[in-house]
Amino acid sequence: MEKSEKKKNILSIGEILWDSFPKGLFLGGAPFNVACHLNMLGENCTMISRIGNDSLGKQVLASLEQKNMSAEFIQIDSVYKTGLVNIYLDTNGNATYDIVEPAAWDFIELNEKLVKIAEVSDILIFGSLAQRNSHTRSAIRSLKKIVPLTVFDINLRPPYDNPDIVKESLKQTTIVKLNDTELMTLAKWFNLPSNLKSFAEALSNEFNCKIVCVTKGGNGAALWHSGTWSEHPGFKVKVKDTVGSGDAFLSALISGVAFGDFDSYEVLKKANAVGAFVASSDGATPLLSEDEINAVMKN
User: Fold this and answer.
1) What is the pLDDT of residues 39-80, one digit of tens each?
2) Distances from the Cα of 72 to the Cα of 68, 136, 265, angstroms
3) pTM (global) more than 0.90
4) How far is CA 59 from CA 32, 83, 130, in A?
5) I need a labelling partner for 126 at 20 to 30 A (CA). Which of 10, 37, 147, 273 fits?
6) 4 falls within a domain
7) What does the radius of gyration of the chain's CA atoms come to, in whole angstroms?
8) Residue 3, domain member (yes or no)
């Protein structure tokens, strides 16, 4: 999926971990999933995280090599273990999470190497879960001040759903992505309207975010962009599990808006198709292909 435009330099920082399903272990973590999908979509995305000096950490490095992703900015921790999440699926494929704490990704260190790559990067992707610990939170906030375009992926995972962290993260953020359940939570936290369009407009005005995107599960997504509103109903597929589908959606959204001028509806259409394909597949990062995504859009 090579793009003809000059590629942007994209950083994704946060948790890289193993999702433990009944079927086995799958490499995951929202920032990693987004980075993986961006690379499959033809973008240039570098992952920043931290793993343990353990067998699961070695498997992370092997998986990155297999996916042709750089491990240059994957830090090795001699104290804390590689991240692990126990995932439980209901009959509809929806997931609940038991996120092991502490984990190596809680302790990402800001160093000269990270500062230098941030100075030559165009986009920084970060989430809320990775900021549950002050170490990684501090590194993210420092990098936000350096990279010109920032993408905040709100992924509220109780008990790590801290309104103060979310509020601080929204400041100086260009693009915000959240789901409709998280919208209701933020509306209560920040006294914003709960209507989809009114919320997006109010959040954009309150925090000066240029783009606010709200996903609605199997019902598609909506996008507020500098005063304009677009919606797409999504695509119906046979769901295997929803893990990673929102991350895949976000990767296609970023790829679609990274070059300035874009058609909001077409971007949502492509992002919904990528997310739907992942929901119809096993694991969070199945191999993407243009043909398969086009097939979802045609159906």
Assistant:
1) 999 999 999 999 999 999 999 999 999 999 999 999 999 999
2) 12, 17, 36
3) yes
4) 14, 12, 21
5) 273
6) no
7) 18
8) no
